[in-house]
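Subject — a protein and its fold
Encoding — discrete vocabulary of local shapes:
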Amino acid sequence: MPKPLIQLLLALLLAATSYAQETVADSIPLNKDSIEKELDDFLKLFDSVQQPKSYFLVGVGIGNTQFSVKNISLNTQQTTSNLSIIPTLGYSHKSGISLTYNNYLLLEEKSIQLLQHSLTFAYDNVGSKAVDYGISFTRFMGKKEFVNTSSPYDNDLLAYVNRKEGYFQPGVMVGFSAGKYRETSRYLDSQYVIYPGPGYRYFYVNDTSTIRIRDLTIIPYLQSEFEWNGIGKKDLIVFKPSLLFISGVNKFMIDSKGRRSVLQYPRLGRSYSESASQSSGFNLQSLGLSLDATWYIGKFYINPQVYFDYYLLSSENKFNTLYTVQAGIMF
């Protein structure tokens, strides 16, 4: 109910009360200050219901996404689908500023291994009725060497804007991510040599490579949002499907240093240093469908998310599915 209408109804009620009290004996005075105070308190209560509130969040998730907290296009680059357990601690201020801490625990072969952790600072606009917009920055920490189940990115920046009104709500996300990691390897190699005699000579290669990666992403998308009252009096279900058009450019820079040693004579060998870079060029990379549902039950919530990706730049491994299920409590 709009605030002016509430004020009008309360003013009419106040006038009626004043008229009724004027008909009684003069020994019962009208306390106008008390009535005005009650009106102010009621309007403040109305405002507090309409405005967002600050809260803490404690939760845990399980899923097969490790590369990014918010940028789905980075998660589609994963080459494995191992499960991770993701404990979460967060604080969200009513102004739209939030801070979230995540752990990433790899669940593999009946063991749990801490891969890395991340800290996300974000701002989401909460005042406008026409558009949503926001920006987030995630810092990944604790990774020493890259493995397929950890994120190769150290810094992940993502901004978005989308329309709030209408059945279909268009929007766009822009992300920039960067990282540096190290890979070490030792393997047996061979090459054909003429001196001191024709034939193949075998070498042990000890290699250490430093890889720097840069990723620019632009994702136009179209979403809808549906809300239903749940089973009880204090629950709400929110469902948000989105169609995404993922495009971007990736660049890798590799610096390798190592030593090749003759197999039969380990002391004989030579050191080497090599550098190379590769860029994918800007392309429309994939089409995606995101299904995001949240069930709020009082202070408790459960949030399943599923993402289906269709890769456009290859004839192999074109379909990919990512999912997470999160649950927690807000207080």
Remarks:
- The CA atoms of residues 271 and 297 lie 63 Å apart.
- The longest helix spans residues 3-22.
- The first strand starts at residue 55 and ends at 63.
- The mean pLDDT is 79.
